[in-house]
Amino acid sequence: MEASKARSDISLEVDGERRSLTVDNRTTLLDALREHLDVTSPKKGCDHGQCGSCTVLLDGRRVTTCLTFAVAQDGAQITTAAGLASGDELCSMQQAFLDHDGFQCGYCTPGQICSAIGMLDEVKAGHPSHVTDDLAAEPDQLSDDEIRERMSGNLCRCAAYPNILAAIRQAATP
């Protein structure tokens, strides 16, 4: 197949809005969002899945969009950090990041927030991590080590980790 003809029509629900586009089959979900749909909340950091700045919730699970082909996600529901708020009311994780100054330059913040939400959902579903002691622990009972391990795929160049940890702890507490 000729490279110029290797294109597909796909449809994505991004932050509650159904969007249709045509992409080269090699286009990452990150590039489809940023370059084709002008959705700039997920950031391009390393482009190798190592920094987490491109993390979004894909059908409710956290994923690094730089490692995901857009064509494989046809019909998927994508929530970016920009789509978490309800009007002018921030979601609890966004508010916690503000309350605890869980950002400095802010570049990693959208990915950190989406990853934190996905991480807490994984805990609720009973998914263990490398340091999990108690598989029956509730999200608000997570140790600092557990949160750090589960968030280890999201890097912060400014080293706001103590504030990010405090924000996640606040959002996890009912």
From TrEMBL:
Question: Mind listing the UniProt keywords for this protein, alphabetically?
Answer: Iron, Metal-binding, Oxidoreductase
Is Metal-binding among the key words of this record?
yes
What Gene3D superfamilies does its record include?
A: 3.10.20.30, [2Fe-2S]-binding domain (1.10.150.120)
* Annotated 2Fe-2S ferredoxin-type domain residues: 8-84
Q: What name does UniProt use for this protein? A: 2Fe-2S iron-sulfur cluster-binding protein
